[in-house]
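Per your request, structure below.
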C-alpha cells in the first residue's frame, strides 16, 4: 500500500526530507495539536501572521486550512481589513488576490 504524502513532503520533501519530517511531526503533529487554542483559532492567527509578514508562499495553503477549520470567508476578509491599519495597507492589498483565489479554489 502506498502512503499518501503530506503537504510538506509534496512541497519540499524531495529536496529537504528532514524539514518535511519536522513540519509533519513537530509543527503539525505537536504544535497544531496543543490544547490551548482550537484549530480554528490557530488558523486565524497563522493566516494573519502570514499576511502581516508577506509570507505569500505559505498563505494559500493556510487559507485553505483556515476554511476547512471553520474560519469563515467574512472573518478572513475582516482580518485583512483590520490588518490594513495595523500591518500596513500594502500588506492587506497584496493579500486580497490570494484570498480571492483561495475562495475560488474552495468553490471548485
Amino acid at each position: 500500500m502506498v502512503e499518501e504524502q503530506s503537504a510538506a513532503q509534496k512541497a519540499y520533501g524531495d529536496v529537504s526530507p528532514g524539514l518535511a519530517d519536522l513540519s509533519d511531526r513537530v509543527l503539525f503533529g505537536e504544535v497544531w495539536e496543543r490544547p490551548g487554542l482550537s484549530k480554528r483559532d490557530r488558523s486565524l492567527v497563522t493566516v494573519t501572521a502570514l499576511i502581516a509578514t508577506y509570507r505569500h508562499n505559505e498563505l494559500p495553503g493556510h487559507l485553505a486550512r483556515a476554511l476547512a477549520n471553520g474560519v469563515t470567508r467574512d472573518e478572513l476578509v475582516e482580518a485583512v481589513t483590520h490588518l490594513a491599519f495595523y500591518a500596513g495597507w500594502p500588506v492587506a492589498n497584496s493579500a486580497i488576490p490570494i484570498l480571492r483565489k483561495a475562495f475560488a479554489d474552495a468553490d471548485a
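Residues 82 and 92 are 8 Å apart (CA to CA).

Regards,
D.
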